[in-house]
UniProtKB/TrEMBL annotation:
Keyword Flavoprotein part of the UniProt annotation: no
Basic and acidic residues: bias regions: 554-568
InterPro entries reported in the protein's UniProt record: DEAD/DEAH_box_helicase_dom (IPR011545), Hel308-like_dom4 (IPR048772), Hel308_SKI2-like (IPR050474), Helicase_ATP-bd (IPR014001), Helicase_C-like (IPR001650), Helicase_Hel308 (IPR022965), P-loop_NTPase (IPR027417), WH_DNA-bd_sf (IPR036390)
The name this protein goes by in its record: ATP-dependent DNA helicase Hel308
Job description of the protein: DNA-dependent ATPase and 3'-5' DNA helicase that may be involved in repair of stalled replication forks.
Length: 849
DNA sequence: TTTAAGTCCCTATAGACAGCATGTC
DNA sequence: CTATAGGGACTTAAA
């Protein structure tokens, strides 16, 4: 089918497609159009990655927008209806990163009158603004949240596209997608649903659920050769072989990477994507691959790579960042969730630009933004799984997704996906298990209690159902209902969940009728797991009840303090817990650890947390609040590594009065373990708000810079929710919660809160200003300009922006000389650095001891 | 003597959505 | 209840 023959699209679109070089539809796309895609027909397209799914979505959305709400145009003229009579399309993505990718893609239709908007947790276009958009891109959670908050424009939707719909199989996030689709269809029964799926076993079942036509195809625009490397050759699925000798002592993966770079017969340099099963493996593999790729980079590339490496170092001053930069300088990289998102983007972009020749990645990359590669090497096909209790083979679907990354459009004649085997038996098994195998069926995970807890409350709160029967009737529209062979099960779980929700005061019964309580409504709108909300409420109320007793306990600890502070000015570890961890793992150099943060001020009066107990008697304490939100199911906790158990057990006893709730006894094994991992996570947050350096935090907790951001974001969100709950329940901890939240938001100690709220001032600048004697917002307005300029290291423009943001009348820094600043205003930079060096040196000395 | 290869033991284990109100160094 | 790769420390074999 030719694009020129397409009907029902807005004026100019077929021509535009033609100009883009799309003259002929791919077979699956043509099939979709024949199935009625552009006439508003619902459709499930189960096709491989990179086989033109996006165009299928675009055709559906554009034609739906053109067709409009009232009546389908029969003339097929495609004249775009003016203004609000046009249809409205929603594109649901599984990841935030994909939302911006898709938005950028769809924006090329703007010149044809199609407005595109995005809505994710990060990047929110206000609800009103969205209602004027023709195409809206959002994550499934955001859509769910919009439904809960009754976003008016949802009712105007004429078309919904669900990308990667096979993710309804996901234990954690699948139910949200499933329920959201069911709700959208219920809001608008005529809704066109276009579901894009990987090739899965039961695509037909998914189509039945959505009352949709099915297009199922293995066709792909670039051929994919799948094979297994064993010995000195790859055996491909088409029967062909490729010699790739592996020298003695050499490993398979580097040999394959080198082989791809050697190319076939031209000077074509093939990039490789190596999938491994852990972050550490990704990093060490990248280190090895860098020695391979280094031999293939040209002089020009060397310079560009050096620059890229510098950009990477700029993102974050951590070991991860440094290791990545080192690999990148040689043309290789690693990629995993511990990276800062800027890191990821830099690596992905450079790989697409063919600057980076090889990425060693955890499975993140397979699900993320589009990063095609000449060769995909799946080094590890098993992964540790705690629930399973050992190494578990990857799902076929997952492996297929990875393999689908092979083949760069326009660059490669075909893509190659290679699994690695050490022996003939494994080779045969890999062929059986992954290459010849069809992907697993998609199975709904909706009947799991945690999923229903959230969604039943939301369903009641947003008025989709008012009785148990109503709920079951609603649930009957989900994929789960079409799949289950035990129809009773849903009813049983529903009853248990309703019971839970009632006991915790989120819903109440009036005879048959179920209603959400005011708190229940809030919880639903805040997008909290009801269990998290219950934990938070319990914790805050428990704290209110035990307040005076705990305050006394906290005060009772003071006698020991002065002594500890003199021999160790560790700002963040009241008590000697850090000492225990030194010996076990971190090798941190004694008390001068973090000395860098203190050295500037000298007077020690800013030693946040512990002083509070003595002077302000703040309760609940920040640590108590962080621990509270860290133990909710909405927070992903840090692992306890070896040695951590004793470290945090000790800390747990020291900080016992701060916890908001009863500490489980050590005999309650699982509960105690959870309590400790929550404590570890809370401690990370306490370090963060204690202004501990990023690299020190990553070192101490064994996390990457991206993990810190993630924990901080989540904590901020949960503390925001806690604040709302506290104010709604009229608890006087609201203020403490708000402050703890603000400190997490800015990553600063209490005394910097006032400064850090100013636009342009973050944790670092705030500290510099404070040390220079500029301690508050009003100081910014009144203090001597030379003093401020000196504190900001002479950055005039920055200083002006900051002063303006602080509301100073005359922010101009012209004619101001930083050297005019009084002696005490100049940040003691050398001291700053030497203190840090000293700390680092001692840390490395510690490693030898 | 130097270097490569082999062995033993220990350790650690993927990912990332959401409220609200505005902006890091 | 389930496994395995990597790295360091060390030993052994070859040059």
């Amino acid at each position: 089918m030719r694009t020129a023959d397409l009907t029902g699209l807005p004026t100019g679109i077929p021509e535009a497609l033609h100009d883009e070089g799309i003259e002929e539809l791919y077979p699956p796309q043509a099939e979709a159009v024949e199935a009625g895609l552009t006439d508003g027909e619902s459709l499930v397209a189960a096709v491989p990655t990179a086989s033109g799914k996006t165009l299928v979505a675009e055709l559906a959305m554009l034609s739906s927008v053109a067709r409009g709400v009232p009546e389908p145009r029969s003339d097929g003229s495609g004249e775009l209806p003016s203004g609000s009579t046009g249809g409205k399309a929603l594109y649901i993505v599984p990841l935030r990163a994909l939302a911006s990718e898709k938005k950028a893609e769809f924006e090329r239709w703007e010149e044809y009158g199609i407005d595109v908007g995005v809505s994710t947790g990060n990047y929110e276009s206000s609800g009103e603004w969205l209602s004027s958009r023709d195409i809206i891109v959002a994550t499934s959670e955001k859509v769910d949240s919009l439904v809960r908050n009754n976003a008016a424009w949802l009712e105007q939707l004429t078309c919904v596209v669900s990308d990667e719909v096979h993710l309804v199989d996901d234990r954690h996030r699948g139910p949200t997608l499933e329920v959201t689709l069911a709700k959208l269809r219920r809001l608008n029964p005529d809704l066109q649903v276009v579901a894009l799926s990987a090739t899965v076993g039961n695509a037909g079942e998914v189509a039945d659920w959505l009352d949709a036509e099915l297009v199922h195809s293995d066709w792909r625009p670039i051929d994919l050769k799948m094979g297994v490397h064993y010995g000195n050759a790859i055996s491909f699925d088409d029967g062909s072989q490729r010699e790739v000798p592996v020298g003695r002592g050499e490993r398979q993966a580097p040999a394959l990477v080198a082989d791809a770079l050697d190319g076939d017969d031209d000077d074509d340099q093939g990039s490789s994507l190596v999938f491994v099963n852990s972050r550490r493996n990704a990093e060490s593999a990248a280190r090895r691959m860098a020695d391979v790729t280094e031999q293939y980079i040209t002089g020009d590339e060397r310079g560009e790579l050096a620059q890229l490496a510098a950009e990477i170092r700029d993102v974050s001053d951590t070991e991860t960042s440094e290791d990545l930069a080192k690999a990148v300088a040689k043309g290789a990289a690693f990629h995993h969730a511990g990276l800062a998102s800027e890191h990821r983007t830099l690596v992905e972009d450079a790989f697409r630009d063919r600057l980076i020749k090889c990425i060693c990645a955890t499975p993140t990359l397979a699900a993320g933004v589009n990063t095609p590669s000449r060769r995909v090497i799946i080094r590890d096909w098993q992964r540790y799984d705690g629930d399973y209790g050992g190494m578990k083979p990857l799902d076929v679907l997952e492996v297929h997704q990875m393999m689908g990354r092979a083949g760069r459009p326009g660059l490669d004649p075909y893509g190659e996906a290679v699994l690695l085997a050490n022996d003939a038996d494994t080779r045969d098994e890999l062929f059986e298990r992954y290459i010849w195998a069809e992907a697993e069926d998609v199975r709904s995970k909706l009947a799991a209690e945690p999923a229903l807890r959230t969604h039943l409350l939301a369903t009641v709160a947003s008025g989709f159902a008012h009785t148990r029967e109503g709920l079951l009737e609603f649930l009957d529209q989900t994929l789960y209902a079409t799949q289950t062979d035990d129809p009773e099960r849903l009813g049983r779980v529903t009853d248990r969940v309703l019971d839970y929700l009632e006991v915790n005061g989120f819903i109440e019964f009036e005879g048959e009728r179920i209603q959400a309580t005011p708190v229940g409504h809030t919880v639903s709108r805040l997008y909290l797991d009801p269990m998290s909300a219950a934990e938070i409420i319990d914790g805050l109320e428990w704290g209110a009840k035990h307040r005076s007793e705990k305050l006394r306990a906290l005060a009772g600890e003071t006698p020991e303090k002065p002594k500890q502070r003199t021999d160790a000015d560790a700002d963040d570890a009241p008590g000697g817990f850090q000492r225990a961890s030194e010996m076990v793992s971190t090798g941190d150099g004694g008390g001068s650890d973090d000395g860098a943060d203190d050295s500037g001020s000298g007077d020690g009066a800013d030693n946040g947390t512990d002083d509070e107990f003595e002077t302000d008697q703040t309760y609940p304490t920040p640590l108590g609040l962080y621990h509270l939100v860290c133990r909710t199911p909405d927070m992903y906790q840090l692992y306890l590594k070896s040695g951590d158990r004793e470290t945090y057990t000790e800390l747990c006893y020291e900080r016992e009065p701060e916890f908001l709730g009863r500490v489980p006894t050590e005999y309650e094994d699982v509960a105690f373990e959870d309590w400790l991992s929550a404590l570890k996570t809370a401690k990370l947050l306490e370090d963060w708000v204690g202004e501990v350096d990023e690299d020190r935090i990553t070192e101490r907790y064994g996390v990457g810079p991206g993990d810190i951001r993630g924990k901080v974001d989540t904590a901020e969100w949960l503390l925001g929710a806690a604040e709302r709950l506290a104010s709604e329940l009229d608890l006087d901890s609201v203020y403490a919660v708000r402050e703890a939240k603000k400190r997490v938001e800015y990553g600063v100690r209490e005394e910097l809160l006032n400064l850090a709220g100013v636009r342009g001032v973050g944790r670092k600048r705030a500290r510099r200003l404070f040390e220079a004697g500029v301690e508050t917002r009003s100081d910014l307005r009144e203090a001597d300009k030379s003093r401020i300029l000196a504190a900001l290291r002479g950055r005039r423009k920055t200083a002006e922006n900051i002063l303006e943001a602080a509301g100073r009348k005359d922010p101009s820094m012209d004619d101001i000389d930083e050297s005019d600043a009084p002696e005490d205003a100049v940040p003691d930079d050398s001291g700053f650095e030497t203190a840090k060096e000293r700390a680092d040196q001692q840390a490395s000395l510690g490693d030898f001891e």
